[in-house]
Amino acid sequence: MHSFGQRANAIATFSLTILAVICSLASFTDNFNAPSPKAEVKVSNFNWLQKQRNGNDEASLTLNISADLQSLFTWNTKQVFVFLAAEYETPKNALNQISLWDKIISSKDLAKFSIRISNKYRFIDQPQGSNLRGRDYNLTLHWHVMPKTGKMFADKMSMTGFRLPEVYR
Ligand SMILES: *[C@@H]1O[C@H](CO)[C@@H](O)[C@H](O)[C@H]1NC(C)=O
Ligand SMILES: *[C@@H]1O[C@H](CO)[C@@H](O)[C@H](O)[C@H]1NC(C)=O
């Protein structure tokens, strides 16, 4: 016959084992879940390209942003930070990155969206740049996944083939 103490101890050990199995399964499924985010960004209207008084070029765009980032959400996802950047190369810099729009997505339900907006942050060539005329650029959607526990991870998707007009207008 087992004493009450031995039995309680056995139950506790058994519970801990189950808990350990559940935890490792959970983190395994999180790693196993390969996200397959989808995104599409279009310039629905090119508004203008101007030279500011201080000499820097500034552009204004209206963007159609559609994305399905629901697969980034798992039981362990706290929130996802997304931002859209215009990326281009100039003689001085291999990568110029200008953030045009961003959003914090706090739930899976909100991770699928389609919006039409003008750039939220100014598209200015800086510092002291007059490099935007005729410039080829990419629109890259970046996402940073902030987990409840564990490491943050980031990825991105580039849409290519955009070009600014040759003249101010
Ligand atoms: C952008 O979205 C609007 C309305 O949602 C649509 O009418 C328009 O055709 C879209 N433009 C492009 C370039 O996809
Ligand atoms: C734009 O995207 C293409 C394809 O991913 C890449 O080869 C190119 O270097 C990118 N350009 C810039 C300026 O980041």
UniProtKB/TrEMBL annotation:
> Which Pfam families does the record cross-reference, listed alphabetically?
SPC22
Q: Tell me the protein's name.
A: Signal peptidase complex subunit 3
Principal subcellular localisation of the protein:
endoplasmic reticulum
The record's subcellular location field reads: Endoplasmic reticulum membrane
Signal peptide boundaries? 1-26
Q: Which GO terms describe its cellular component?
A: signal peptidase complex
**Keywords assigned:** Endoplasmic reticulum, Membrane, Signal, Signal-anchor, Transmembrane, Transmembrane helix
Membrane topology listed for this record: Single-pass type II membrane protein
